[in-house]
Backbone:
């Protein structure tokens, strides 16, 4: 009987081992066929017919880019095209296509010679325009392919050279270089793609930024009959332009307005207008706003906040800015949104905290008309139906215009 059990055990063991053995697939898929291409700026779109193999996993295109690096792009077994890129000039390139199966067997290479168009970095470079602005220059270009480009802007004066790197994948971006003196600079441009291909440096001319000033706020007065009531508890509407930015570290710099529904008809009726008489005429090209930072959450530490109140329910979020010279006819400078960076768990990236601390900067598309009256028309907060807070607004442009 004992021998019988041993025999049965051995049979089961052999059967188990047999089940675990797998047949190794060493058969390569068939070749990729019917290959053609459409040239693009710096690349091509390959179309093909994949082999009819049940275990086909993907098609791989292998080639050497303009930097001499062997790279590859793939398409799943459902696809019939692959876009390749990384070429700089319109020269013939040899492309090899492989069919790869689930056992990582590769087919015999199918080859095609491709002649791409010149890279889109040349299109970008040729379209770049610079224009003097208050405190800097505006840089714009056309990028119809909507591919990421890096524009290296070099500028020099008095024997010193500086560089700023601008990047975008938009079709018609408009970016700013700020912090420049109202003196003449010589500018040159180099454009680079995501793969590292670069154009030669091209001189684009001399530009003299206009003088940019921080608009002095000592003459500003609220027009209460045109504005909401923002004077609640420690908050005052005038705190919005008192040059004191609220911090979380101390309750001593409580500098913000508080718009409370009970003082404004029992509910927050958007838009909530704050209208200011600057008592002078100015033009502006940008402005910065700050949220309230402080929150009474730790009475055990003399009221000092342990956390920032940024991006929380009662802080201002979206708003329009309008200007006028007669308080009757208003011109909109735009609608703006601080944005909500909180994820599903309420976590805010550290970069967004820094943005709130430094102030949210908004650039106008063009320099404004001269104006005397400013209206900030609040459109939303971060969720409260009771209060709206805002700490500070600062304008930049040309002060005391006649």
Residues:
């Amino acid at each position: 009987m004992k021998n019988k059990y041993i025999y049965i055990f051995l049979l089961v063991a052999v059967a188990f081992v047999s089940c675990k053995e797998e047949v190794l697939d060493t058969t390569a898929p068939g070749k990729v066929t019917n290959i053609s291409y459409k040239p693009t700026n710096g690349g091509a779109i390959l179309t093909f017919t994949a082999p009819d193999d049940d275990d086909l996993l993907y098609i791989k295109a292998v080639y050497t880019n303009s930097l001499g690096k062997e790279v590859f792009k793939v398409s799943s077994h459902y696809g019939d095209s692959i876009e390749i890129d990384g070429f700089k000039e319109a020269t013939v390139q040899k492309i090899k296509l492989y069919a790869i199966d689930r056992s990582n067997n590769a087919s015999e290479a199918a080859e095609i010679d491709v002649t791409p168009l010149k890279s889109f970095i040349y299109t970008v470079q040729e379209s770049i325009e610079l224009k003097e602005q208050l405190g800097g220059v505006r840089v714009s270009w056309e990028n119809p392919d909507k591919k990421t480009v890096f524009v290296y802007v070099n500028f020099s004066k008095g024997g010193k050279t500086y560089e700023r790197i601008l990047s975008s994948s938009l079709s018609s971006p408009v970016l700013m270089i700020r912090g420049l003196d109202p003196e003449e600079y010589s500018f040159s441009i180099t454009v680079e793609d995501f793969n590292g291909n670069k154009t030669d440096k091209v001189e684009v001319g001399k530009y003299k930024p206009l003088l940019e000033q921080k608009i002095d706020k000592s003459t500003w007065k609220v027009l209460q009959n045109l504005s909401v009531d923002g004077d609640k508890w420690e908050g005052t509407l005038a705190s919005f332009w008192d040059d004191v930015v609220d911090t979380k570290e101390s309750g001593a710099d409580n500098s913000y307005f508080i718009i409370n529904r009970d003082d404004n008809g029992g509910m927050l009726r958007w838009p909530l207008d704050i209208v200011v008489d600057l008592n002078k005429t100015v033009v502006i090209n940008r402005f910065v706003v700050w949220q309230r930072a402080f929150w009474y959450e730790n009475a055990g530490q003399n009221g000092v906040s342990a956390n920032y109140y940024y991006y929380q329910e009662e802080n201002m979020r979206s708003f329009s800015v309008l200007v006028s010279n007669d308080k009757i006819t208003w011109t909109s400078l735009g609608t703006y949104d601080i944005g909500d960076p909180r994820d599903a768990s309420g976590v805010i990236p550290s970069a967004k905290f820094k943005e709130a601390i430094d102030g949210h900067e908004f650039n106008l598309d063009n320099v404004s008309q001269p104006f005397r009256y400013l209206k900030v028309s609040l459109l939303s907060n971060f969720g409260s139906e009771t209060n709206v807070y805002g700490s500070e607004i600062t304008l930049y442009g040309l002060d005391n215009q006649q």
